[in-house]
Predict the structure.
Amino acid sequence: MNRSHLREILNKLKKELDIPEGEKLRVELRPMKTKAASISFKRKVIRINKNLIPTLDEDCIKYLILHELIHYKLKSTYHNSKFQKQLNRKINDTKIKELERKIIINLLRLSNIF
């Protein structure tokens, strides 16, 4: 998956979450040892584990970006009820568990744990 495709996904999901176009967010690909993705509120950057990207399908990548965008929208890193409510508006619990399972398995494989 190339950077322009990641940008397209980011922009589409921003619209779906009603994050204003003026909010300039970026996606960076970085090697990470233990994380699939993270967000920097200060820098307005979603970081995705670049070593994980080739192992994931598009749905998993969309989920990672969506997950971090919800953190950004709520200005919180907590997975509280507000976060869960926003996430469940886009994806049902069964699908979330399936996507997270795929992501975690691939992350563990990269870490030579699994």
